[in-house]
Amino acid sequence: MKPTVFAPFRPWLVVVTMLGLSALVPAAGAAAPTFAAGREAYERGNYEAAAATYRQLAADAPAAGTFLNWGNAAWQLGHTTEALLAWERVLLISPHDARARHNLQFARETAQLEAPRWTWSEMAAAWLTARTWAWIACLSFWLAVSLAVLPLALSWRKTSWPQAGMALGLGVFLLSLPANYGTWTRTKIGFIAHADTALRLTPTADGEPVIRLAAGEPGRVLRTHSQYLLIETRLARGWVAREEFRRLIAPGLERQADAAQATSP
Amino acid sequence: MPPPDASTVQLPQPGGAGRRICRRAGLLGAIGAGLLASTGVVTAQVPAPDPLLQLMLAQPPMEVGTNVTVTAELDPPVIVAGGHSTYRVTISALDDSIRWPVDILAPQELTLRLSSRAQILEPAPDRIRPFTMINHLVAATRVGTYTIPTFKVQVYGRSVAVPAVTLTVVAQPSAALPPPQQLYLQLAETNVYCGQAVDFQVLLPAASNNLVQALTQVQLNGDGLLVDQATVRQRVQPLEFLGRLRPVYIYESTLTPLVAGRLNVTAQGFTTAPRPDPPPGASSRYVLLDSDAVTLQVEPLPRTGELPGFTGAIGKFAALPPRLSADVIRVGDTVKMMVAFESRTGARRLVPPPPPAVTNWQIYPAVSEASFPAPGASPNLSGTIVAFSYTLIPLTHHLTETPAIPFSSFDPEAKRYVDLTILPQPIRVEAGAASAEAQALAQAAAAGRTETGLQLGAVAAAPGRSGNPFAAPQLTRGFFGLQVLPFAVLAALGYGARRRRYLERHPEVVRRRRARRALRHERRILRAAAQANDEARFVRSAVQALRLACAPHFPAAPHALVSRDILEVFDEATRTGRAAEMVRALFAQTDAAQFGTTPPPAGGLLHWQPELQLLLDVLEAKL
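^ Those are the sequences you sent over. The predicted structure of the assembly is below.
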């Protein structure tokens, strides 16, 4: 047999290929939850199992349908906040998902809850995904800057299209700024986690309750202090413990706590 | 009943303030009359006097801030050990002006607890006197004589003394001891649900002489209660009370607990009693009585099993057949539907269910009708018919029945919700000239029906669009760090353009750079030729190196330079020295090789290599 240049690497090639394939193919022993299994559990009326399946799937491979079904299962279990968060997160992935909008309207009408009071910049942010807005801003900005720099750098012949492109890029960038700002302020929106949660006058466990709120009542974080958040709801403003308020776009550590809480609502 | 142990303190009257108040009232009347008179002068017509102002002026003045009298008494002054008496303090002042101490200094053997407090206005011939009475329940367990000492309270900002009273506690009850006069509170039920109406009676039995006293300003004390003042009834009825039949004054109404838990309820009210030292024309006085506390156990309504149309009705109800004001109507006409429920637990109020949102009917919210006792109901009023009416307008024809109106109540005995839905009533609606408003309402109702008929959506069949909902690149530092990349590219491009323009303006820089590069290359060839003793190649490279090194100084093409051009680059000393000789020799050898007919003789030029290297060093430094 004629030797080839790959001949000395053959054993390594086999090992690397095997390792790559083993990474791609799930381990045979691990029974990973599947979307179909969750749906089957839901249709059987086993909402606990369905919610657990979709919760796991949402953590491993988040998708709009996963969050939608998770919300449905949580709603059937009476976990209002979990359901509202799941459906709101569907809209973060797929902003024009009619099913999630419908379910949110249904849930709020049934539970007599109000939708969060979005500012105009947050409403603009909801037109597209956060990632899309980020890249629109990024690309439009660098398009404008490039078309300002490149004709000079590359000694292009003087024409009007770079200027038109620069104006277009700058315009799109400026228009995307409010939406990006809205994306940031939406991180302050959240929902009361448990029913009969006391909104307190001071950030202490013994603080005087200002009002008691229902699960799923929307609020906006104004300030944080140690383990307490100062939130504003449509009824009043007051302090709640971090674990009593679940943010729509939870930052880092809070997201871990959020996931842990979701498993034991 | 013997006169209670009482003492009276008369306050001094500084400056006759009471007379001043009366004078002020008279002055107010004069000012009012003057105003009326002046108005008449200006308009030249005497207007009719303002009846409200006249009524105000006709009121007798209220005695405030003067003649504050304080009396204290124990009712009864003698009790059996383990019994209790009422420590009653009466102050002729407005309630708000009294700063009553929280704790009263009393012997340790006595236990005092505030039981009631109220104010009453007593009419006098020429004025109205306010009286505030404060009752404490005094309990004693040990036989003896105890005195509650005098103490000071603030009334109208002044210090007023409450006189001392003495309580005698005896071991055995005596027939001579009259029972204390007090109120008795009776509740129809004590285990109720939150929001359930409960009938109550406040009883005042007649005294030993069978004289029945009326009650006034009766009120219930306790948190979380609502007393229905519209259903108050009062009567005198002989009852078996405290062991004998006697007339009893009965005050009855309905209370509604508003909070769940244990509620302690007491009743209080004023009655009249003979004065111990009656002034002329006033032989009786008001006395504040109160009752022992009754505990009401209130449970919240169960959340499970609630039926549509529940508006808080609690009790046993039976729906009576609704009645329509007409059986045949035209579109746009109104029809009144009277709905009645018989309450078997005496509830006299019902909150009607809201009209349902239906197509083809416009329904106005229900109007409550007067409740009345059910035929054949007992006098205690359990068995009442509560009625309300809806006004309905058909918006389309071909309707055959009125819409059903969901309604439900909670049965506290069965502990479950009961469906009382108002059933559809047959009716015939004929075509008529429906107004444009009615047609618009019909359309809006139809549209509203589709909007409000929401149901939970079906689950998704596939995961669909994937993405991390928490992924917002603009909220991460890495995203901003990534922007360095295009910035660096554009900055490099900008710098390159600037450098290129600089070189275009300064071509000598380019020539020198190229010359340096070519010179270094040529010198490598030169060294190689010297090492190989290849004189012809050495000479060619040496001449070429000299030309390359000197060409940018003119500037000129390197091959156009001759030895004289090369020597011009050097200073005078070099041009006349050994270096000049070497340059000429090298060029001569090259010219001979290039233009001669015979090859030049070889040998003798390689030894110039060290000096040539030095010369080239000088030339390279000049570039």
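Residues 1-44 of chain B have pLDDT under 50 and may be disordered. The first strand of chain B starts at residue 5 and ends at 10.

Shout if you want it in another format.
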